[in-house]
Write a structure and sequence with these properties.
single chain, 2 domains, binds glutathione, glutathione transferase activity
Length: 226
Amino acid sequence: MSSLKIYVHPLSQPARAVMLFCRANSIQHEEKIVDLVKGAQHNEEYAKTINPLKKVPVIEHDGFFLKESVAILRYLARTFPVPDNWFPKDSVSQAKVDEYLEWQHLNVRTFGTLYFAEKYIVPRTTKQPPNEKRAANFLKHYIAVLNQVETIWLKDRPFLAGQDISIADLLAAAEMEQTVLGGYDVKENHPKLQEYLERVRGGLQPHYDDVHSMLNKIASKMKATQ
Ligand SMILES: N[C@@H](CCC(=O)N[C@@H](CS)C(=O)NCC(=O)O)C(=O)O
């Protein structure tokens, strides 16, 4: 019998996208939590046997190891019997998904992550306050790319690559949910993206809330103590 292990952590955006894909498609798999908070990704064993880049997500499918969320999601969509909308076989439809996947890494992913890291990770690892000037600059760029998502990618379609949800939406939603931990709630600031995120979430319940539960709990606690 085929075996799929996914090495993930629920506070990692690309890992959540992989978790969500597997859960929403009822792909039989085992979740291996790599405790990023405790630095488990830096363990010698993890670097040696799972991922020399010391990051999540990674999958292990029948002895085949694959890192990088985009490659993983494409591989899973090709390899498992999932509905075609996730990564369509039709060349033009697939290219539309790829178009977002190629763009997001240097845009939503980059600026959302830089902002989140400056506001959330840096203070926790250095015990120093964030550099607010740097954070504001990352946020400015993050808002600019979110505006591009609204006005270009979602201009005339409900999902990033067309009428149906695809793997592009999983990565986008996971990134947009993350920055609440840095104090920037996309849903409160971008009504069109709020509707979009609700659309993505609505079609993926209860899995969407399940994979975001740790993030949402931390965000609620932070809001309560502000
Ligand atoms: N390009 C990679 C990014 C992976 C990545 O940056 N993972 C982060 C969590 S979101 C990580 O594992 N960080 C641990 C570390 O840098 O120590 C992907 O899309 O899979």
